[in-house]
Structure formats: structure tokens, C-alpha cells
Design brief:
233 residues, mainly alpha, Methane Monooxygenase Hydroxylase, Chain G, domain 1, 2 domains, three-stranded mixed β-sheet, rod-shaped, binds zinc ion
Length: 233
Amino acid sequence: MHRAEQLYNLQCTDSEFDKLARRLREVEASLGETEELRQVRLDLQKAEQALNRQQIRLRDLELENASLADKLAANEQRLYGGTVRNPKELAGLQEENTSLRQRKNQLEDVILEVMIEVEEAQERVRCARDRLTQVEKQWRAEQERLTTERGELQAHLCALDARRRELRAVMPPDELKIYDDLRRRKGGRAVVLLKEGVCQGCQVSLPSSEAQQARQGEVLVFCGSCGRILYAH
Ligand SMILES: [Zn+2]
């Protein structure tokens, strides 16, 4: 039995486990509400508030207009009703009538402008609502995909964990200790391939006698440069 082979198999299993565990953490971090979703929801809220303000303004202007119409009707009643005969008083009423009409005309112009603004605000609310619907739909599909991926990763990690326990169960404890120490110190990679005499952990060439030993596999051979266990087959 090649001394480094089992360690290399364990390394492959551990590396795969680490890779999938990293992906699982990413997936879990991506589950839940996104910044985009929050932003689009906020945009809709703002558009609705703006519409609400314009509608309140329009209602106030319309009330003011109705009140002016009442005043104007009362004024005309007195002006043309025949009850007031005093020329000075009639002139005063006439003046008031002109001024009321002027104010009412101005107010009606403003009302028209605000009605257009309300329509524009309604359009902005419609757009913001459509956008939210679209973003929510994409978000739900993405969440569903991520949830499926999380389930697959969890199952895969569970299988890998069982596999590495099996491998460790039949390996000498002193080799496992060396392996675990190296994994801690070397960024998770304790065993690397030796290809054409070059360590694949640090890309340094090994003296040919050591490369030969690594291929024979009777003893564990360590890279003189990075210190990792070498596996050549
Ligand atoms: Zn090396």
C-alpha cells in the first residue's frame, strides 16, 4: 500500500467538504430579503406617499373652489336679486363679484395643473408597483433555487463527512496527527500531487531521489520547500 495514497484520498474528501461548506455559507447568506427588494419596496412606498400628498392637495383646492362658488352665488343673488338698490352698495357688490371670479379662474388653473400632477404621480405608483412585482417574482425564483441548492449541499456534506470518518477510522493515528497539523498550517492542503517532479502545492521541483521515493510510496515524503506530504502515482 502506497503510504500517501490514503492520506491523499482523505485530503480530496476534506477539500471537497471545505469547498461545499464554503458554498453552503454563501447560499445561507443569500437566503432572505435582498437589498434590491427592500429598495424597490421603499420606492413604491415613496411614490404612494407622494401621490397621497397630491390627492390631499387637490381635495383642498376643490373644497376651496366650492366655497368660492358658494360665495359667488350669494354675491350674485344680492347683486341681481333686486333687493339691493343703493348704487354705491351695488358697485361694491360688482367689484366683489369681479374679484371672486378672478380668484375662481386662477384657482381652476391651479386645479388643472394639480390634476395633471396627480395623474403623473399615479403613473409613477403603477411603474413602481410593476417593478416590485417583477423583482419579487425573480427573488422568489432565486430563493427557491437557493433553498434547493442548500438541501443538496447539506446532503452532499453529510455523505462526505461519513466518507472521511470511514477513511480516518483505518488510518494510523500518528499519520492523522501529521496530516491535521499540516492542514491547519497550510491553508487546508496537507497532501499534494507530485507531477513530473514538481510539487503542486508550491511549484518547486524536487531532487530526483526524493521524487523517486515519493513514487515508491514506502515512506511519507515531504516537500522540502512547502513542507506538504507528496503523493505521486
Ligand atoms: Zn511544496
